[in-house]
Amino acid sequence: MTNDCSKLTAIVLAGGKSSRMGEDKALIPIQGVPLLQRVCGIAQGCADTVYIVTPWPERYQNLLLPNCQFIREVPLSGDTGGPLVGFAQGLAQVKTDWVLLLACDLPKLRVEVLQDWAGKLDSVGDEAIIAYLVHHPKGWEPLCGFYNRRCLPLLLDFITQGGRSFQQWLQQHQVAALPLTEPDMLFNCNTPEDLALS
Ligand SMILES: Nc1nc2c(ncn2[C@@H]2O[C@H](COP(=O)(O)OP(=O)(O)OP(=O)(O)O)[C@@H](O)[C@H]2O)c(=O)[nH]1
Ligand SMILES: [Mg+2]
Hints:
By secondary structure, the chain is of the alpha/beta class. The protein contains six helices and nine strands. The model has no long low-confidence stretch (mean pLDDT 94). The structure holds guanosine-5'-triphosphate and magnesium ion (MG). Its EC number is 2.7.7.77. Residues 10-170 form the MobA-like NTP transferase domain.
């Protein structure tokens, strides 16, 4: 296992509407630490470079996010964008072969698990594999896993053709499965009821 942070970039997505929560999830404190700050701290345990992709960086300027860099998401004309578009805009800046993509609403992430996964990336030998993700009965978990930078042209083609769904895009390509030993860590905090469980 390697824990070489310099080989990996992390992208944290923080541009969602939080309509189910009713307030910006990124700013909600969990054990006193705003969710985005918490997720970025964990991302920094795995990657030297951490990008936060959001249309509204000024909203997060008072968070403690040392060494994280904002990428201001540019809205596509006549389009609501969404996480796939935000990811593409972040990925365009990435210089490393692999990137760890994280949603900002994952309060139970475990840095040791992410580091363990990152250590397996060197052994993904097959060039056709564009991502390394956890598989659920409903499909891949797109917002807590690894993508190869090679996937950018494929992603841009899909978006240009009007595609906006991670699941649909991933179905068209080869993805390798990450072992999920701690399912709890993918707990997704979308609603006030979820928050009460965080
Ligand atoms: N940069 C960026 N991130 C997004 C966008 N849409 C969703 N996200 C992020 O993707 C992750 C998952 O978002 P969801 O929980 O599915 O949705 P949400 O829009 O935040 O919340 P709801 O309005 O309740 O669906 C979160 O980290 C969001 O901040 C987007 O358009 N741009
Ligand atoms: Mg969510």
